[in-house]
Amino acid sequence: MSVDRTLKSRSALTRHRNVLTRTERIEVLAEDGKWTEGQDSVFGLPKVIHRKSHAGKKVKKVKEEASTEAAATAAPEAGASS
User: CA 38: distance to chain centroid?
Assistant: First the structure.
């Protein structure tokens, strides 16, 4: 048996939607400069691409930078002790 929708947290109810509402499409078109208030009709709007943004793999970059910094700090110390 699944948990009722009203008992779930608010963030769990939001998810990526492929289809935007008319007002959301107008907002996107207005940002792109393809729709102007009062001049264009709200009917027959062009399709708007709505992609889900993914988090990048920044964790690996941080680990690589940390290993590079560790190697850079270890190299002068090795030279000083010789």
Answer: 31
Q: Check the CA dihedral 29-35-37-41 and report its sign.
A: negative
Cα 40 to Cα 26, 29, 43: the distances in Å are 10, 11, 9
**Would you say residue 50 lies in a domain?**
yes
Q: Which of 67, 28, 70 is nearest to 47 (CA)?
A: 28
Q: Does residue 22 belong to any structural domain of this protein?
A: yes
Rounded Cα distance between 7 and 5, Å, is 5
User: Domain of 33?
Assistant: 8-81
Number of domains in the chain: 1
pLDDT in tens, 10-26: 666 567 777 888 888 88
pLDDT score of 82 more than 60: no
Rg (CA), the chain: 25
